[in-house]
Amino acid sequence: MRNMVCDQRSYSLDRLVIGLLLILGSRVFSIAQSPYSFCRPELIQYTRQTYGGYNQNWSIAQHPQTRFMYYANSKGLLEFDGSRWKVYALPRRQKVRSVAIDKQGRIFTGALGEFGYWLPGVAGELTYHSLTGLIQERAFRTEEIWNIQITAQGVLFQSFAFMYRYQQGRVQKLDVPSTMLFVHSVRNRLLLEVIDKGLYELKDSRFVLLKGSEFLGHEAINTILPVGDTDFLIGTERAVYRYDGATFAPFNPQLTAFMQQNRLNRGLLIGPDRYAFGTLLNGVLITDGQGNTRYHFNQKNGLQNGTVLSMQQDADGNLWVGLDKGIDLINLNSPVSYFTDSEGDLGTLYDMARHGNNLYLGTNQGVYYKPLNALDSPFQLIPGTQGQVWNLVVMDGQLLCGHNKGTFRIEGTKAQLLSGITGGWVLRRLRHHQDRLIQGTYTNLCIYQKDARGQWAFSHKVEGFSAPVRQLEEDETGAIWVNKAPNQGVQRLRLSADLRRVEASKDYADADFRTAAVNLCRIQNEILITSVKGVLRYDVPTNRFVPAASVFPGLGTGIRKLFPISGSDLFVLRQDGSLNWVSPGKKLSGAIPVRNNEWVDEYENIVVLDTNYVALCRENGFSLLPRTELPRMVGGYVRPPVIRAVTAGDDPVVTRTFWQSPTEQSFSYRQSTVLISFSTPYYTRPANYSYWLENSTQAWSPYTAIHQKEFNNLPPGQYVFHLKSNLNPTESVFTFTIQPPWYWNAWSKLLYIAIVLLCARFLYVLHLRRVAAHQNQIREKLEEKLRHQEEQSQREIILLQKEQLEQGLIQKSEELANSTMSLIQKNELLVQLKEELNRIKIRSGNRRPGDDFHRISTLIDTNISSEQDWKLFEANFNKVHEQFLRHLIENYPDLGQGDLKLAAYLRMNLSTKEIAQLLNITPRSVELKRYRLRKKLNIDAETNLSEFMIKY
Asked: From 443's CA, which of 36, 304, 355, 549 has a CA 20 to 30 Å away?
């Protein structure tokens, strides 16, 4: 359809106008705003390999809340959050031709036979909601939705044949006059070109022709923009007109001539007095409000492709360009501009200077110049300067060049050799000799002074010194400080009054000065060096280098080089390539938004071109900084980093995507590996991040360029992820919890506590039982012991009693024996007395009375064996031989009293004679008694009766 329209747009009058404009086309770049207008804003490229989509990008939109960028790409809907690109495909994987976002954040897209919107789903990923079901026309299925407009009356989406309005959940088809191109929303008016008819305005649901626009029906209107207070710019493929509401007039002849050659495809108002025009053949043209060219970006100077399909200005004022091959970002918001040697014709830039009306570049290929009043002219090589250029400096209106071949004075486009001493690294005016210059070279220190014509000329070499000098400074005392290359340390020299020789020197060549590049500079009458120990200053009283924090607080560590500009202004180049600025009376600023990866290593250089501009030398060109814009460059607001997504677990994997503030998340114990992705929706400065995971890591991490961080095997618990960037110190916080396993959650812990309590109770009871059993055992043992002790005591008592009884028995036995023996002796005595009495009676005859003898004899018989003696004997016998007689009577009841006496005497093992005396009978009678007793006891003759009685 677009090609068909292009074939119909020309007619004879237009051809005549265009022909006249082509004559003026050569002036398209004649308007300039500054002598450095050939420098352009930074151009950032995103290739299809970077964003993961297809080449063509048909439309661009920015989310009003999140500031994420969205692109209608041939592969699908592209999303860019500042760190991560993601492609969302339509259900039928059609090419997305258009994209627009309303205030509610709904992302509307159009494709072949498809129209709908995207919103975050449950997990945060964009989910597509098709509105195709609300459209009744079957022909819609074959139409491409090329344009979407968000209006106060609803969302308009259109192909070249149909236009629909989506409002309050309904889709209304609008009746268009004929085949059309895009509808444009300008000054709250909806304007639409109808092919072959002209320009129409949509009012409610009616299309009204703008009078006088009929001639535009034969052209392709690709942009309508506001201009002035009330007018419109109407941009066709080959011309730009200004419409005041009544008439159409050519806007800018040079601009129209450019469009005639390159075919306008898109237009955009990018400022109060600035426009961007995208072409099909020659990139992007940026003009002022009058149509005068400010910048031109095409494939030759960095644009990936010359065909512009879409353009969009983001919330920071930068211009996104969707190309037929890739996406480019033009950093219009930054005052920093760049000159880039895209073809590599100039070489690596080491120094530069502005002298007169020319700008000079010193590279590894020679000295190049460019007249600043001829912006279109390229840099040209000055003959005779081929080779390595180290230094360009203007002294008293003369441009001097330190070169690999020597030192030149450059006048205009010619170079004159002043000295053949090779390697002019650095040239300084002596503070104590204003008419002299001192130079450090590959081998010597050289002195220059003016000749009779007032021009600088070589004077002499300084004797007593020979070393390569890359940097030198003069202190307040007139001493010369030199930094010897490579890494040979710093030396302080005292020159003679005529500057011809070195009178004294001192080396400061610590190991730290030799292991890494040391940079020497003079700031506020202080000699400073940057080293691995940080910034050090020379301390006069101690004659050594000490930390410079007391004089220059806030510089911090990791400084590569210091660049004093003027007064107290100071640029600080850090090891990571970032650049800070310190102004008088202020602390160290934030980073200046310049590319930090294109410095010339070990030869970084910042040059003051004039009172308004500072230039930074780069490998393939230079960056231009307007000095008046420095406060704005370092003080711009950047949003805090966004915690974009979190992916947790190995099995299963769970991903949550966030759009603004993340909500607290909870993951199972199997998802203890957590990957957190983050970004900063600021697209012109790279963000470095520092993070800290509360309850896991101990401190903030160093700033790095990573945009995601993985934490592995986190134990169950609650964690708080803190994040900040180098662009904004405000923290972003994300809280998440790793749940314990089912066997270690709150309920299981309660169960375990109950089990533990039960077990403790059981063990306690068991313990009590064991204690009781043990106590019983101890008690039993004690009782047993007591019983044994008692028994032992009883036995001892019994033994004692037995011993006592035995002793008593023995004593009683002895007493019994004694009493028995006494009886026996008594009886024996009485028998003897009776016998003696009888003999006396016989001898006396009848001389004494017989009664006396009879009485005495009777008395003797009575006392020989009395019943009283027996009772006494029986009592003593029973004490010694308990119950013997009683048991004997019980077992042998036939025994008489005499038998018992005989048994008792036999028990006492008395002899027959002794028994006879006790019984007062004859031994023969005793034997007879023994015989009778044996019979009664039924004892045979072989058993000894005495032994029987003793054992009984």
From this structure: 355
Burial status of residue 548 (CB atoms within 10 A of its CB: 0-12, 13-18, 19 or more):
buried
Q: Quote the longest CA-to-CA distance of the chain.
A: 224
* Alpha-carbon span 904 to 946, nearest angstrom: 10
Q: Which residues pair with 150 in a beta bridge?
A: 155
> Given 3-state DSSP classes, what are the helix, strand and coil percentages for the chain, each rounded to the nearest 5?
25, 40, 35
d(CA 136, CA 915): 159
All residues at 6 or more sequence positions from 787 whose CB lies less than 8 Å from its CB, including other chains: none
Interhelix angle 912-919/746-844, nearest 10 degrees: 70
Here the tokens at position 480 are: 């010369």
| CA atoms of 581 and 630, how far apart (whole Å) | 8
Residues 886-892: contacts with CB under 8 Å, at least 24 apart: 887/952, 888/952, 892/936, 892/937
The DSSP bridge pattern shows strands 665-667 and 728-738 to be parallel
CA 221, CA 147: separation in Å to the nearest integer? 14
Burial of 397 (C-beta count, 10 Å sphere; 0-12/13-18/19+): exposed
Distance CA 114, CA 827 (A): 161
- Encode pLDDT of 184-229 as tens digits: 999 999 999 999 999 999 998 899 999 989 999 888 999 999 999 8
- Domain 642-743 sits in CATH at 2.60.40.10
Residue 299 near residue 328, CB atoms below 8 Å: no
Alpha carbon distance 450, 457 (integer Å): 6
User: Which tokens go with 577?
Assistant: 């390539």
Give the integer Cα–Cα distance in Å for 746 and 739: 10
Residue with tokens 């008592």: 797
- What b/e readout covers 239-268, taking b as 16+ CB neighbours within 10 angstroms? bbbbbeeeebeebbbbbbbbbbebbbbbbb
Cβ proximity of 670 and 98 under 8 Å: no
Cβ atoms of 669 and 663 closer than 8 Å: no
- pTM for the whole structure: 0.76
Among 168-172, 513-517, 692-696, 871-875, which stretch is predicted with the lowest mean pLDDT? Answer: 513-517
Rounded Cα distance, 604 and 756, in Å = 71
Write the CATH number of the domain with boundaries 881-952. Answer: 1.10.10.10
How far does CA 19 lie from the centroid of its chain? Answer: 65
Three state DSSP letters for 38-103:
CCEEEEEEECHHHHCCCCCEEEEEECCCCCCEEEEECCEEEEECCCCEEEECCCCCCCCCEEEECC
Phi-psi region of 366 (alpha: psi -120 to 50; beta: other; left: phi over 0): left
Contact between residue 486 and residue 465 where contact means Cβ atoms under 8 Å apart: no
Q: State the pLDDT at residue 191.
A: 94
Q: Could you give the CA distance from residue 461 to residue 484 in angstroms, rounded to a whole number?
A: 17
Q: How confident is the model at residue 18 (pLDDT cuts 50, 70, 90)?
A: very low
Tell me which architecture the domain covering 2-333 has in CATH.
7 Propeller (2.130)
* Residues pairing with 231 in the sheet: 227
List, in order, residues 6 or more apart from 684 with CB less than 8 Å away.
42, 44, 316, 318, 329, 331, 333, 334, 593
Calculated CA dihedral for residues 897, 903, 905, 910, nearest 10 degrees? 150
| Average confidence (pLDDT) over 120-125 | 90
Q: DSSP states of 543-554 as a string?
A: TEEEESTTTSTT
Residue type, 308: V
